[in-house]
Amino acid sequence: MRKDPVRLKLNELLDANARFDLMARGTTNHCPMALVALAEMGASPARLQEFFDRWEREYALSAPPVDAIVSRHEWSRQLGNAAAFGALRVCFLDWIAEAGSVPVIAAVLKEVPFAPATQAFHALIRLAYGIKAAHSGEIASGLAALISSHLHIDARFDENRTAENVEAGFDHVVCAMGNGAVPGNSITSRLRAVASDVRFRHAILAPPPAVTLLDDLARATISAYWRSPDFTVLHTVTATHAARILLAQLPDTSAKQLLPGLWIALCTAYATVGRPANVETDSSDVTVSWSDVRRMAVASNDDHVIKMAYTCLCEDRHHPSPLYLASAARLVFRTTKT
């Protein structure tokens, strides 16, 4: 059987990405995530190679040599140790080769608190895209990022104080924080600031007791992004989709246990933004098609544009809404013009 040349090229480049560090110049390593999204949206092998070459030339940092061994029974001791990323990746990769990816993912997420806000949600997204690509190296990298950069938001909520709906839960923490954006020079620094603020800890409500919580979160995040295309809010949209990919791999009971962690992380993200003023929005009834959006996203060199367009495409297929096409179209057209 003839193998798909796009998949062959994607796997080749994801393998090559192992020589890059977790971080990049001025950012984290978005390259593998963007490659998966590009491939899923129909990019050619040549386009994948072009994006990889540009990333390596302009952003990539070489991964330091792995000079330590992390055993399968001691990996949790590296929680929050950024220097252990490479050793953790090797540990998880060897474990996956023996046991398979799903048992390893389940074991890791059972052992330590779920921290979806880690690396401004990028560790979660990288893990999910590794799952989507069925690439053991990227699954191992996503898990290693979650552990080595672990950003657990240690907040508790009273089960008797429940948000009426997702939007009300977000709004409650925003109001408690004074309804203004939190200062900080990065998404992560602002997340940390909110997580340590007593106002946030007292304000967070239990999530709505709905069996459709993940779908409700998806609807709320894209609605918020359409009203105000804030960069942090963009990450809540892509992170919610990534959570959908991840949780689909796990038994229902395990997935249910992880949802409160996602809820807390998203509430924290919205508290960092405040309540931004609505931007002037055109009607969500756009005249362009998904074919147009995919073509422009595939041609983009902006990794966030690529991932957001891909997320909107996938979520629209899951639960159709005109906001997905409208949001993706607005983003790709604006970035093309600039």
Report on this model:
The structure is a single chain. The protein has 338 residues and is mostly helical. It folds into three domains: 5-148, no CATH class; 166-273, no CATH class; 290-337, no CATH class. 62% of the residues lie in helices and 3% in strands. It is built from 16 helices and three strands. It has a three-stranded antiparallel beta sheet with strand order 2-1-3. Helix 6 crosses helix 12 (231-247), helix 11 (213-227) packs antiparallel against helix 12 and helix 12 (231-247) packs across helix 15. It is globular, with a radius of gyration of 19 Å. The termini are far apart. The model has no long low-confidence stretch (mean pLDDT 95).
Give the structure's gist in a few sentences.
With 338 residues, the chain is mainly alpha-helical. It has helices spanning 5-16, 31-40, 45-58, 85-99, 101-111, 122-133, 136-148, 166-176, 187-195, 198-203, 213-227, 231-247, 252-273, 290-299, 303-318, 322-337, and strands spanning 20-24, 27-28, 60-62.
What does the secondary structure layout of this molecule look like, with pairings?
Layout lengths: L4 H12 L3 E5 L2 E2 L2 H10 L4 H14 L1 E3 L22 H15 L1 H11 L10 H12 L2 H13 L17 H11 L10 H9 L2 H6 L9 H15 L3 H17 L4 H22 L16 H10 L3 H16 L3 H16 L1
Antiparallel strand pairs: 1-2, 1-3
Helix pairs in contact: 1-2, 1-3, 2-3, 2-6, 2-15, 4-5, 4-7, 6-7, 6-12, 8-13, 9-13, 11-12, 11-16, 12-13, 12-15, 14-15, 14-16, 15-16
